[in-house]
Amino acid sequence: MASENSPQAVRSEWWRADTATLHARKQEIEILKRQLDAEQNAILAEINNRGVRGCSGHSTLAALIFEDFHVTDKEAGLRADRVLALHPAVVMGGEVVPPLAPLTAEAAAEGAIGGGQIDAIIRTLSRIPSTVPEEDVRGGEKILVDLARHAGPRQIARAGRRLLDKLDPDGKEPRSEDPKDARPELRFVQHRDGTLGLKATLDLETYARLKSDLDPMAKPHKAIAGVRDSRSQDERYGDAFTDYVRLKTTSRNLPGQAGEATHILVTMSYEDLIRDIGEAHLDLVGPISATDARILACDARVRPGVLGTAGEPLDIGRSKRTVSLAQKYALTIRDGGCAFPGCDMPVPRCTAHHIVFWRHHGETKIDNLVLLCTKHHRLIHHSEWKVAIAQDGLPEFTPPSYLDPSGEPRRNTMHLRT
Questions:
Q1: What's the rounded Cα separation, in Å, for the pair 331 and 264?
Q2: Cα dihedral sign for 75, 76, 77, 78?
Q3: For residues 207 and 258, what is the distance between their CA atoms, to the nearest angstrom?
């Protein structure tokens, strides 16, 4: 029989708690776990400074963690890297070497950030050249730490890449003179079982155009009589490509994104455009060089977009389209995909949501619209989550009080490009 203080007894009592208490306690426990991790890391740092071999007989700190805590090689290495990056080291002669990430260590000790977030920060900091002034490094670390307090490793990694571009604009030299100029190739293949296939090498623009055409055609079919589309993603794209070829050879009326003709977007910050440095973002592909962006912008079917420092649309180009189409391009540039915090759903999988509902006389204008994926569109309509456009023109979301009593608005950092 379980005692009053046993884990079984404690667990059995949680059914009595209200939802707000459950959410609050899980957050408190996460902070406590992170604080304990930070304390353990400080102990491991002291062991390392005294000499791991002399203290425990292990050859390295990672070996100690591997043997003592029964974790994988990978986890042992990551945990050792955190210890070494967050604490001062004592080298030969007693000299003390400052830690790589002192601000990260402070946030970790508070319990504000955890392992994956720490890893993303130290990976970025370790790639900053030694020629960068210390004040700039610490300023960059502060940006990443502040972001990490409300964002995950993927968002931090993206922000880290942007930080490296600013601190070391020459750091992304291509391995060849122009690897993106490889000649496109297409091979028709007959497999041993008699099936036919294709093998292709495409340039960025062709890849983006093809994917933009196929995406709306490869969406799952709507459920009929409760039966959902059972095709895999590969099978849906295979069917879409078959239809695409048939339509291309028999008709000019190819379905596009939400009824529009095929377009792709190239976005970059105004500062980078002027200085011809950094990266642009090619829709459906990702980061490309500023030079490649200028070349693609010569094509009438590539729509250039210039972003300000906060990501607001400054120039969405010109097009012989309706107002609603221009608004969609503006939303694409501003939100970059589903705007709900932590969601990475791309633009083609999103629809425009009226912040003040249409049935409540909400207007169809940019400051009353936000891009949302199907899941989060339904969540906004059927929950206590609130969305509003902040003073800087970007959408922010306020969670229900039982999730976050502070009422602090949240933003999506998954799609940031500036």
A1: 14
A2: positive
A3: 20
Q: What is the pLDDT of residue 58?
A: 76
Give the whole-angstrom CA distance, residue 116 versus residue 103: 16
Residue closest to 347 by CA, chosen among 268, 412, 280, 273: 412
Query: Could you tell me the mean pLDDT of each successive run of 10 residues in the chain, 418 residues long?
Result: 55 82 92 97 92 76 88 91 92 80 96 96 91 92 95 92 82 50 76 75 81 83 60 80 69 48 60 63 66 52 56 48 64 88 81 78 82 84 88 91 86 72
List 289's β-bridge partners, or say none: 279
Cα 362 from Cα 214, distance rounded (Å): 33
Q: Measured between alpha carbons, how far is 63 from 58 in angstroms, rounded to an integer?
A: 6
Q: Which residues contact 116 (CB under 8 A, 6 or more apart)?
A: 152, 153
**Element housing 141 (H / E):** helix 134-148
How far is it, in rounded angstroms, from Cα 378 to Cα 359?
16
Closest CA to 155 of 194, 124, 190, 193: 124
Distance CA 390, CA 142 (A): 23
User: In this predicted structure, what is the pLDDT of residue 280?
Assistant: 72
The beta strand positions in 148-208, using DSSP E, are: 185-190, 196-201
CA 207 to chain centre: 21
Q: What token pair was written down for 320?
A: 């012989």
pLDDT (0 to 100) of residue 389: 92
Characterize 379-400 residue by residue with b for buried, 16 or more Cβ atoms within 10 angstroms of its Cβ, and e for exposed.
ebeeeebebebeeeebbbbbbe
Supply the pLDDT for residue 303: 55
**Using alpha carbons only, what angle is made at residue 49 by residues 47 and 51, rounded to the nearest 5 degrees?**
70
- CA–CA dist 237, 235 (Å, integer): 5
Calpha distance 188→202 (Å, rounded): 14
CA distances from 306 to 130, 263, 269, 276, 312 (A): 32, 16, 6, 13, 9
pLDDT at 308: 58
Which residues have CB under 8 Å from 296's CB, separation 6+?
204, 205, 266, 282, 288, 302
pTM for the whole structure: 0.56
Q: Are 159 and 413 in contact (CB under 8 A)?
A: yes
* Token digits of residue 66: 């591997």
Strand partners, 251: none
Which pair of tokens denotes residue 282?
A: 């090619």
Q: Give the list of residues 6+ apart from residue 54 with CB closer than 8 angstroms, or none.
A: none
In this structure, what are the phi and psi dihedrals at residue 81, rounded to the nearest 5 degrees? -60, -40
